[in-house]
Amino acid sequence: KGGIYIYYFENYVDNVALAAFLTNIGFNDFINGLNNMLIGMGMSGFEWPEDAASSAFSLFNASGIIMMIIAIAISKPLADKYGKRALFLFAITLAAAAQASFFFVGKENVAAVFILQIVHGFFYGLTIPLLWAMVADVADYSEWKNNRRATAIVFSAMLFGLKAGLAVGGSLVAGILSLYNYNPELAVQSDKAIQGVLMCMSIYPGLTFLVSIIALFFYEIDKKTEVMLEKELSARRANNQ
Question: Where are the domains of the chain?
C-alpha cells in the first residue's frame, strides 16, 4: 500500500483542495520558513518541493509513522491486559476498515484523508510488535507440544514471508495500475487509471488485511494459552536443571 501513496496524491486528490488544506493547517508557512533557513545557510539544493502533492505525501507518511510509534509504545500493556491475539485481531480489523474507507473519501475531502491515515497508522502500529511476539509464542508452543524449540525455523519462515511479501507487493502496484491503463507519461490520467489508483489505495490493501483477519481465527494461542505455556514451560525447564 505504501507504494501507491504518491500516485494517490498526484492523480486522485484535488490539487487545489490539497494546497488550501496545507495552507490552513500552517504547513506551508512552516515549509517556507524552513526553505528560507536552508537558503540562508547556503543549502538551496535542499529546498522543500513546492508542489502540493509532494508536500502532502510527506506529511501523510509522517503522520502515519508518528501514530505507529505512539501505538508501538502502548502495545505491550494493552497486550498484557487483553492478550496478543485479541488485541491483534481488534487492531488489524480497524486498520483494514480505515484503509478500505479511503474508497469513500471524495477528492476534495483532504481532512478525511489525513484522519483516516492517522487512524490506520495507530491501529496498524499496535500490530507491529504483536506480530513478532506472537511468532515467539509459536516457538514456545512448539517447545511445549514437541519438547523441542523451533525458534530459528519459525523466525526464518517469518522473515522470508515478510521479504517475499514486500517484493511481490511492490511489483503488484505497477502491475495493477497497468491493468487500469495508467500511463506515467500523461500529465492527466484517464478516469479508469484514477479508479485503479483509488482501488490500490483502499479496497485491494483492505482485502490483504482481510486475509490476516481470517488467518487469526486459525491461531489458537489466546491469552489463556499464553499463561499456560509460560507456567508449564517454566516448570519443565526448572525440572530439567
Answer: 65-240
Q: Shortest CA distance to 206 belongs to which of 50, 48, 95?
A: 95
Find, among 48, 54, 59, the residue nearest to 25 by Cα.
59
- CA 4, distance to chain mean position in Å, is 12
Instruction: Say which amino acid occupies 154.
Output: V
Burial pattern 81-119, b for ≥16 Cβ within 10 A else e, equals eebbbebbbebbbbbbebbbbbeebebebbeebbebbbb
CATH architecture for the domain at 65-240: Up-down Bundle (1.20)
Q: Comparing C-alpha atoms, which of 192, 206, 189 is closest to residue 9?
A: 189
Give the dihedral sign, CA 203/185/60/78.
Answer: positive
CA dist 159 and 135 (Å) reads 11
Per residue in 91-137, pLDDT tens?
A: 999 999 999 999 999 999 999 999 999 999 999 999 999 998 998 88
The predicted-structure confidence for 147-171, as pLDDT tens digits, reads as follows 887 788 888 888 888 888 888 887 8
Is pTM, for the whole model, over 0.85?
yes
Q: Do 135 and 155 touch, CB atoms closer than 8 A?
A: yes
Query: Are the CB atoms for 201 and 1 separated by under 8 Å?
Result: yes
Contacts of 154 (CB under 8 A, 6+ apart): 135, 138, 139, 142
Of the candidates 135, 155, 154, which has an alpha carbon nearest to the alpha carbon of residue 221? 135
Would you give the DSSP letter of residue 104?
G
- What distance lies between CA 41 and its chain's CA centroid? 36
Instruction: Copy the grid coordinates of residue 20.
Output: 488550501
